[in-house]
Structures are given as structure tokens and as C-alpha cells.
User: What shape does this take?
Amino acid sequence: MDQSIELNYTQEMEKAMHQNHGCGYAAYGIDMSERLKVERTREQSHKDGMALVTDINRQVHR
Assistant: This one.
């Protein structure tokens, strides 16, 4: 079963992918374990950002 996905991306997106996740879109599109690793990192980053927003809102609305 082929689990690769076709992705369209720019050079800037490729550069950001390497800087943030240590892999390119080619590896991301082919390797399921790489995709899962990247998505776990993205999810944790999102949760951290949401927690920061919650903390700031709490401080602002005291």
C-alpha cells in the first residue's frame, strides 16, 4: 500500500520545513513516520501557543 502524498510547496516553505522539522517535503510526503513526527511537533507547538494565549488573557483580564 502506497502511503505517499503529493505536495505542492514553495522554496520558502521547504526552507521553513527544514528549519523547523529537520526534513524536507519530499521526505514528509514519502515517509509516514516522518509525517507523524512532524505532526506531533506541530500539535505540541499549537498547544504551547494556546496555553500562552490563555495565560496572557488571564493576566490582562484580572
Summary: The chain has a mean pLDDT of 93. The CA atoms of residues 4 and 13 lie 19 Å apart.
